[in-house]
Specification:
Elements: E1 8-11, E2 14-18, H1 24-33, E3 36-39, E4 55-60, E5 63-69, E6 77-79, E7 82-85, H2 91-109, E8 112-117, H3 121-129, E9 133-144, E10 159-162, H4 168-178, H5 187-196, E11 199-205, E12 208-217, E13 221-229, H6 238-252, E14 257-263, H7 267-275, E15 279-292
Parallel strand pairs: 6-8, 13-14
Antiparallel strand pairs: 1-2, 2-4, 3-7, 4-5, 5-7, 8-15, 9-14, 9-15, 10-11, 11-12, 12-13
Length: 293
Amino acid sequence: MTQGGHSAVLGAGRKIRPATASDQQKIADLIFFESHVHRHLDWRTPLDWLGYSPYWVLEEGRHISAALACPTDPDSIAWIRIFAFASHVSGDFAWPVLWHPVRNQLAEQGGVTVAAIATQQWFDQLLLAAQFHLSGHIVLLEWNEESAQPHPPSNTRVQVRRMTVQDLPRVVEVDTAAFEPLWRNSLAALRKAYQQSTYATVAEGESGLVGYQISSGGAFGAHLARLAVLPEIQGRGVGAALVSELIEHMRRSGGSKVTVNTQANNAASLALYTRLGFRRTGEKYPVYTFKIG
C-alpha cells in the first residue's frame, strides 16, 4: 500500500506530512523516550505499519515530535495503531493537526469506523473532545492455579490439535463468522498472530474446523489472545474444550496462570470463562469509536 496525502507547513518550523520508511528510527525514538504514547494492543508494532496509510507525523526541523497512524485492517475498520507526541508539544495541538489529514484520507475510502482502546486517561480526554463515542469496555480476567476450582469436563465431540499454517484460511472464516466487524481480524493479522504465538490450536468436529485459540506467554503462564467458535455451534462446549486444553498445556509447561481480555458486554464469553474458573481482575479499558462516511 502507498501513502497518500500532501504535507502542510504549519509555521514556526513545523509541518505535517505522511510518514515514510526513512522515519523509522525517529518514530522509534518518539515511542521509546516519550511518556505520551498510545499503542494499540496488536501483533504488529507501530513501525510495522509504516508504508500503510493513513500514517502522519508532525515534524519540527529534523525531529518528529508527534505521530498518528490508523490504517484500515480489515477494510472498514481503522484502529488507532499509534498516537504519540513529545513532552514539549501539547496533546491538544498534536492530536487535531494530525487527526484532520488522517480523517480526510479515511473519508476518501468511505464507510470506515475508527476505533481505539484507551489505556491512559489523557487519551480518553482527547478522543472525547474529538467526538469519539464510548462504545464499551474491555475487561481482564485471570485463571490461576492457587484459586482455581475444578472445571467441568467438556462433553463435546471435537478434537483439539495444534494449528498449522494451512489452517489459517479456515481460521479467518471462523473468526469472521464469530465476531462483529469491529473485532474481526484479517488473514494478515491472524498470520502474524500465529507466527508470534506460543501455543495455537484448532477444534475439529464432523464438519471440519469449527473453532480455534491463539495464545502468547512465557514461563509463568499464558495469555489467551484469541478464541473463536462458529456461531451455529456456540454453547456446545467447543470453546470450553479449547480453553481447558490450553490450561492443561500451560500446566504441563510449568505455568500457573492464564489471562484473557473480552468485551464487558459479551455475556456468553464471560459466562464461559467464569465457568472455567476465570475471575475478573478489576482492570477495564474503554473502547471508543468514530464513524466516517
